[in-house]
Every structure is written in C-alpha cells, then in structure tokens.
Amino acid sequence: MAETVQYSLTGIYGGTFDPVHYGHLRVAEELTDILPLDHLSFLPAGRPRLRNAPFVSGEHRVALLREAVYNNPRFLVDDREIRRPGETYSVESLQEIRQEYKESVVLCFITGADAFLRLPHWHRWRELFGLCHFIIVNRPGSVQINNPSSLPDELQDICQSRWVTAAAELKNSPFGLIFTAPTTLLDISSTRIRNIIASGMSARYLLPESVLNHINEHGFYTGGK
Ligand code: ATP
Ligand code: MG
Questions:
Q1: What is the architecture of the domain spanning 8-187?
Q2: Which residues line ligand 1 (CB under 6 A)?
Q3: CA dist 81 to 24, 53, 89, Å?
Q4: In contact, 56 and 18? CB cutoff 8 Å
Q5: Ligand nearest 139 Cα, by number?
Q6: Ligand 1 midpoint to CA 181 (Å)
Q7: 95-128 pLDDT, tens per residue?
C-alpha cells in the first residue's frame, strides 16, 4: 500500500512591521493553533517595492520584532530581507527558505486580506503558488475575503481551484492551496500607532510594552506618520 506523505506546516508572516503590534501577534498566535504550525517566522521586508520607505531602519524593526517574540518559543524572526541589499522580493526569500527546510515541511505564507488583494502587483507572483500555501487573514477596515468570489477576476481565476475550507487539507499538499483562517478581528495598524505616537498620545496596549519602551527610548515615530 502506498504511504501517504505526512507534511508539517511552518508559517512565514511577511510585512513591514513598522512597528509590530498585537494585530500581527494575535493572528500569529491563533494560526499556530488553528493550522497548526510547528513554528512561525516573521519576515520583515527590507526595502518594500510597493510602498514608501519604512520610518524605522530594518535593523531596528528586527530589534522590535525580537522584543515582541523573545518569550514565545514557536515564534522566530527571519532577517534575511534586511540583510539583503537592494529591493526585496518575497518570491526570492520563499525560494531560499524552501531550500532550507526538509521536503516534508510545507510553507504557509500569511497575508492580511489587504495585502492579498495586491498580490498581482508582486514580482513573479504566480510562482509563489509553487512554493507555499497562502493563509489569508481578515482585518477590520479592509474587504473581507471568505471565498474566491470575494476576489477580483484575475485573482479569482488562479485561486478558485486552490481554495480549501478545512485547515487539515493544507497537510495533504506541498504547496499551492489557499485557506482563509477565522482569526480575531483586531482593528490595530502600524499607521495608527505611528499617528498616535506622533500626536503625543499613548499607544500602550496596542503593542507589547517592551516594544513600546524600545520605540520611546529611541524617539521613533515622533516626527510624523
Ligand atoms: P501599515 O499601517 O504601516 O501598513 P500594518 O499594520 O498594515 O502597517 P504591515 O507590516 O503592513 O502592518 O502588515 C504585515 C501583514 O500583516 C500584512 O499582510 C497585513 O495585512 C497584516 N496585518 C497587519 N495588521 C493586521 C491586523 N490587525 N489583523 C490582521 N492582519 C494584519
Ligand atoms: Mg500594511
């Protein structure tokens, strides 16, 4: 009798993390249980191509992430895009990461619904479906994605046959599936935190205390959003 492959899942959570906040962290924690994930790596972007330059350097955004995850053994920070010179492309990082893991490990790339809707603008985006699964998380203030019909045509065409409705199905395939995870909707964004700090108000309880302390010690985000 042919043996079925037993894949295990690892999460990759890309973003600018300028700064990391409880919206990111709570989603990451819930996904490690729901999917479930062995580990989850936060992958901060160096020089993102599709948005303005971050307010804080890559090195400091990594330091803030490390403050946020140090007491969670399932969370890691992958700083490869910060160390790489030039523009950052997720497809290149995922290719590298893919080679570093055993074949029995499946990569689950986590994106908020707002980020997933911009996927067709990403460099070599169709290749991503040959490297990882996509896990979409909804967030307040963005279009909610619950099935392929909530997507624009271009994405709908490629996503329709890849959609799965049970997390357990992610373990049956090495890449290319899409799952919308039912995580808690938290209306927290880095933009809002930067605005609050710039206006001299308190950002406490929107992000870990240790992260906020690091921000305050360096005077980050006081000059504008
Ligand atoms: P900014 O306001 O600077 O864009 P952000 O809060 O959106 O910051 P990013 O670093 O841009 O944070 O996001 C990284 C990833 O996390 C993206 O895929 C984004 O959609 C997702 N994300 C950010 N905040 C939340 C949240 N509150 N709930 C769910 N997903 C989120
Ligand atoms: Mg964002």
A1: 3-Layer(aba) Sandwich (3.40)
A2: 15-18, 23-24, 27, 111-112, 114-115, 137, 139, 186, 188-191
A3: 18, 14, 8
A4: yes
A5: 1
A6: 15
A7: 999 999 999 999 999 999 999 999 999 999 999 9
